[in-house]
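Thread title: Can someone regenerate the structure for this chain?

I was given the following input by a collaborator and told the matching structure tokens would be attached. They weren't. Posting the sequence so someone can regenerate them.
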Amino acid sequence: MNPQAGRIVVVGSLNADLTIYTERLPNPGETLHGEGFAVNPGGKSANQAVAAGRLGGNVALIGAVGEDSNGDMLLASVAGAGVDVSRVRRTADAETGVAVITVDAAGENSIVISAGANGTVGPADVAAAKDVFDGAAVVCLCLEVGLDAVEAAAKAGHDAGATVLLNLSPFAPIPQSLAEASDVLLVNAHEASQFLDGAEMPGAAANAAAWEQVRLKFADHGLDRAVVTLSAHGSVVLDSSAEEGRRITRITPTKVNAVDTTGAGDAFTGALAARLAAGETLAEAAAFASVAAALAATKKGTQAAYPRLEDVACLQSRG
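Best answer:
Regenerated them for you:
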């Protein structure tokens, strides 16, 4: 299957990741000694674009960075993955966005972001890149930029006939119009519960049938297709558009020794977009994305840790 079957348009954030490694995450008011520090390219949308690009996707990124060294670093990293960055605007009005990240010995993390130039991304950036949406297969979105920009991009993707993939992270309530313009919603279990008005999620060991009520709730919100990630327990695909018997698919986790889970969710999103653009079903794409995300967690950092297509194929062949 040709991984470049269709263009992927990613709209959103680019951040410089300021990461410090510690034995454990600090408690409130506590100071700990760190064991290393790194400044790396990041931001959910930039990460997702790089993940898709490293997996062979034909990717264009729309966003903004400042006229600073962090902006230089980000553009070089994203372009190095084969992503078209010609629609990433440079602005003198704000510095490049920053994420301050703490990672513990188990690979878990806590993150605080400062929007910077990401806060200047708006509908005008989407309108200026109208031609990029023409013929696109997938439009990939998250909520690290303003909701007005996300809505404009979802509408542009919907009007172009693309599959609109919305990663509802960081979580925020969205208008019904955005839900209806989105073809696939990607959330973790906590975000799924928040989106569904506090609905309880099945346990990690629950079988497919236990997810039936969750599928129906998503459909009631205008979303026929959703993927709920379950951290180390894999994910579940809820597809009300599929034939009966195939509407709920449990994706088994890929077991690895996690070093740093920062950006693993973005690796999943980018991989999902790449395989949807290549013509795979949602369940097939999610199974591939599970492997890509697991591989991303085996190395420190985000973009440089993302696997190539042959890396995923190699691990899949062992499974």
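The mean pLDDT is 94.
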